[in-house]
Amino acid sequence: MWLSGFSANPLLPNVGYGHRTKHESMACIVANDKLLVIGGQEGDFVAKPGSPIFKCVRKNEIVYSNVYMLDDGLKWRDLPPMPKPNSHIEFAWKVVNNSVFIAGGTTEKHPVTKKMVLVGEIFRFNLGTLEWSVIGRMPFRIKTTLVGFWNGWLYFTSGQRDKGPNDPSPKKVVGCMWRTKLQL
């Protein structure tokens, strides 16, 4: 996704974005009538042409913890960064009671193995105080999950989970669902 400008309409202003390169896998959220862009990455794995199992070739990736908000004057404002860089969170968020909740994602590659590292925390960004906190851990690390909220429960379903408690690298794609009661 390119966020160098939002509008192809000449009557609307073209709004520049904090990162001037191809930026993807971030959370784009409208909360309190403001647009927030959270995390994401630059660069991604590229599919090997003709691979029957969709193998990918590694590319250099930069994972971001940056948080930006588009203000009323159509200027990007830096907000406090996430507790750690996080990507693959496009649908892994929900706004509840003036807070953004984000489940899972991916962070920077392992420094030795260079493998992707999945995230197992549930993050909360309080829109009133502009502060981040970690409010819990999921039963396993997961990326590209889908998050929902209903009747006091935060849900996540599907995505690509880790290899196990001792290995944060991605393994199988799952279709299970998990929930936790939010204490707000």
Automatic annotation (TrEMBL):
Matching Gene3D superfamilies: Kelch-type beta propeller
Classification via InterPro entries: Kelch-typ_b-propeller, Kelch_repeat-containing
**Superkingdom of the source?**
Eukaryota
Among SUPFAM superfamilies, the record links this protein to:
Kelch motif
Residues making up the signal peptide according to the UniProt record: none
Protein name listed in UniProt: Kelch repeat-containing protein
